Amino acid sequence: MSVRSTNSGKDVATDASPLSPSRDESPSDIEERLREEKRIRLKVDFRLCTIAGLLCSLNLLDSGIISSASVTSMLNDLSLDRGNRYSVSILIFTVASVCFQLPATLAVRILGPRSFFALITSSFGLITLCTAFIHTWKEMILMRVLLGIAMSGIYPGLALLISSWYRREELQLRFAFLQCGEVIVLATGGIVNFGLNHLDGRAGLKGWQWMYIVQGLVTCLIGISTYWWIVDFPEYSDRSFLFLTKDEARIATARIQSDRGDVIPAPFSWPEVFRHFLDPKLYGFAASFFLLNLVSTSLSYFLPIILQNGMGFSTNKAILLSSPPYYYAVIPVIISSRIGDKYRLRGPVITFNSLCLIAGFVMLGFADQVTVRYIGVYLATGAYVSNWAALNGYQASNITGQWKRSVVAAAITACNGLGGVAGSFIVRQQEAPRYLTAIWVSISSHIFIICIVAAFSIFFYIANSKQKAGKKVIEEIDGFRYTY
After folding, report:
1. Single pTM value for the model
2. Distance CA 85, CA 407 (A)
3. Which residues pair with 4 in a beta bridge?
4. What is the pLDDT of residues 158-173, one digit of tens each?
5. Which of 20, 47, 57, 411 is deepest in the core (most CB within 10 A)?
6. Which residues pair with 2 in a beta bridge?
């Protein structure tokens, strides 16, 4: 084992030796090594993917609360029902989040995941709790700005941490686990909000206030437990609370090093960070997430409104019926991600999911029967949730270097947020019950995603062909090839 000094001045244990079978390994040695790697990977799954799924759900927890509250008295109580104030309250959250995403993602590396995620999660819970006691729409705007800042590092920070722990052929399924935790919490939050709305009038509080109080308190508790639950980066994994031994940490880092050779980050410098913005892949990935989140935002924030005003359901039924599509989404995201990792397919999986989403929005926008339109919601929800995992696996499989991963994670999350800005305005109340602007924008966005994937596939195929012929080194690593 060698010792390498990082820019923080701390020595970390690294063993860069690959885990491919050596000439001295017998078949029984190879079998034992693979068994040990699998055991460690499952240990990482249990500790990292569970808390990551919970933390990732916080963004959708917020959208779940405000969307459920939007069909209660909240809009009238806070004067958010005038003009575009409700849409602006959604927009300002995203703007604040986008502005802080790059420094927040870099802070994950500098402060460490345990301190960083515990701090921002506790802050998010406290701000959510305080939102229950506001009285005007201006105070809501302020709370949304603070929430956006607190949430800015969750998505990119978790994407960076997840991609640091797994080999490329394991990534999409792990992002699927992340997304499953997220949508299950969101779906359960809808049912919880249905129950909390029945507390309307208790202790002099409205139903929407109870939603913020209860879920804000729960988030604070999650934030406190995060410090001990979440794990550090692989090279510091033996510092995590009751996690890997030093020998297990050595095996974990070595298997990642053998896959892409970027376990240990280069010394931090701003030129090193900014040079990665010259890679055109960053902009293709960022554009894909922008287009995806047009749909995510329009559905997650406005689904209860669509169910109420577009399909004629009552307030409580609209809140309750917004949950089942997210439970269903667990099925396609796991299946598509398992296929994507097993066969190392990224582009075809994304394309298939995009076609399913288009079909879902056609049913939602142009069918006459409410049942058919509601089934369209299932199809569209399952498809965009699946594509979130697929696109994350796509970008993480084709990017190397810790600081480059940080930059790409921040950039795609920022553009994901900008997609949320646009998505908050495409569902127009005056277009009920069809919401044709939202329908056509959602369909068009995924046609563009298919085009981006096709362009990437051609580029990756040509680059891999040159690498095989010895004419090109990809991502500054000998032997590296793109996954598409």
Report:
1. 0.81
2. 33
3. 12
4. 989 998 999 999 999 9
5. 57
6. 14
